[in-house]
């Protein structure tokens, strides 16, 4: 059947769903109005309230071409639904954050899904019954792989080209007896409680090689004052436990459990709020340091458990009359959530009194004036802190008249930390922003417990003196655990001082952007120098190096495209890794990540063959190379008729090498599975060389053939024919 070369989006009415029936030659019917779409309420995840975008594009093919001959590409538009009612072997792409792909017959879908599913994208498997019998598996680990969903009678196998892990997926009823698969928001990322409105920093993650897979504060949802709030003049405050000084523009809280909600403290040159009581809450309010130099929020003596949420606090890059911290507490307990802090002369947050400090779902945008010694968070004092710093976004640009800034000082100036967790934050230091170090954990007596710094995504290009910023202080404390932290520019891992990771990493969301290399001397190299196979255990040894002036690398080990482990090198870059593998042939590679999050290219693959258990036959061996390949290396044409073959097989197995059906010889694979065999003289012409491996469990299938052409005859002597003309 003929297929239109281009189906433009404006052909379809907004809000329609489209059915794509390839079995009938791609019949395209815009047949479902808004309110009668393919999805029930149960399957419509985060559907937008506005009119949906147009629905589908199908590209490829010339008029008169058959469906089988055409590269099949289908696009699910943002807010749209695409139904596949017949077989499909092409590629599906989601063009936005709320599309739905409905597959009527899972067994007929042999295609792929490109890109990374957004939070609201849905795969609706109409013939797979939701419930206890529905099972999900995934072959990848923070990588591409095959998603398999089965109810025992019907099975869908979908190749996903993005980076996922099994933990990414959630199954539920689609409302019509089928099963909907979604990649849900990470529990606790703050998007559910967001105040509404336009994100302040939308677009800042565009162009990175990877970004967080969760909803990011200020990027995917707004922070600050709840949408629709009408702000009041602080001079009108009249409540018990609160006093107003209109000449100094100060509000003082002396009564417990007071909430100040919905005030514009930026009026009249700027107001200060001082609390001297327990459990004060300041919410949905606007602060700005103005002409009178008033500080913004201060937890004074007598206060405890101060909460600041859904506020906007603008420091105007101006010093204040107190301590130059936008939020400053001298007593125990502080919670800051859904707040935009920006343009701080010095610190965004200063905490001195110990206790629980919780900083979540905030945006911290630019701080640091000359000689201000700024920090994003500074803890001080002898009282012990417990700290939770999660799902914040830090965006540090080039600030004029600035000597730069420092990051989260988790136990600075002698403060004591009982425990702390800094995780799931998005931290950007643009080039020229002069961020010295993003996180500092001081050991010794000031660290009474454990600090976990994990699953953060960062851009560390904006260091001091033109260098990369330090994601972590290179003087690691043994109780400061750094792991699963990702450089968004390179896609690599920052050096982690604990392997294996205590928890599985949160999957990164990849983009089409190429990794950025701002200093090519920092890009590591890695080699696998030896491989040993003992039963099902494989031990790799290797070496990593780069131009980094800070020692240490975190090496990722892959079996095919699946990461199977991590190991840190010693100070010289040497590493050793051991894993237990399943029966079969494994292609193992390594990548090295240095302190700055630069990642190497994969090492040359090594093959490990693991024998089956019981009476099962071993995996097929490999023929890796031959010598001598004379003349043009790699063309497999040689004048050497006695070939030396090398390869790998199950350790201890008997390897038989054949030329077609003719046995050339046998050899026993050593303890590492390596084998070498030199043939007798072979005849001129083409040869197809294979190998089998035999153990007590039986004989394997033949290896992939190695084609070699032998030509031992020199070319004839040329003759010169005289011309008589």
Describe, in plain words, how this protein is organized in 3D.
The structure is a single chain. By secondary structure, the protein is mostly beta strands. The chain has no helices and 59 strands. The strands form 10 sheets. The chain has a 10-stranded mixed sheet with strand order 16-17-19-22-25-28-31-34-37-40, with no helix packed on it. It has a 9-stranded parallel sheet with strand order 18-20-23-26-29-32-35-38-41, with no helix packed on it. It is elongated and about 110 Å long. The relative contact order is 0.06.
What structural keywords apply?
725 residues; 9-stranded parallel beta sheet; elongated
Q: Count of DSSP E strands?
A: 59
Mean pLDDT: 84
Q: Order of strands side by side in the largest beta sheet?
A: 16-17-19-22-25-28-31-34-37-40
Helix content: under 10%
Rg value? 32 Å
Uncertain runs: 1-71
Short description:
The chain is an all-beta fold and 725 residues long. It has no helices and 59 strands. Strand 16 and strand 17 (250-253) form a beta hairpin.
Question: How does the SSE layout of this entry go?
Answer:
Blueprint (H helix, E strand, L loop, with lengths): L16 E5 L5 E6 L23 E4 L13 E4 L4 E4 L6 E4 L5 E4 L8 E2 L8 E4 L9 E4 L4 E8 L4 E10 L5 E4 L5 E4 L27 E3 L29 E4 L4 E4 L5 E3 L10 E4 L5 E3 L2 E3 L8 E3 L6 E4 L2 E3 L10 E5 L4 E4 L2 E5 L2 E5 L3 E6 L2 E5 L7 E5 L5 E6 L2 E4 L9 E4 L7 E7 L2 E4 L7 E4 L10 E4 L2 E3 L10 E3 L7 E4 L2 E2 L20 E3 L14 E10 L2 E9 L7 E7 L2 E7 L5 E7 L3 E11 L11 E5 L11 E6 L9 E2 L5 E5 L5 E6 L2 E7 L5 E5 L6 E11 L2 E2 L6 E5 L15
Parallel strand pairs: 1-5, 4-6, 5-7, 6-8, 7-9, 8-12, 17-19, 18-20, 19-22, 20-23, 21-24, 22-25, 23-26, 24-27, 25-28, 26-29, 27-30, 28-31, 29-32, 30-33, 31-34, 32-35, 33-36, 34-37, 35-38, 36-39, 37-40, 38-41, 39-42, 52-59
Antiparallel strand pairs: 1-2, 3-4, 9-14, 10-11, 11-12, 13-14, 15-43, 16-17, 44-45, 45-48, 46-47, 46-49, 49-50, 51-53, 53-56, 54-55, 54-57, 57-58, 57-59
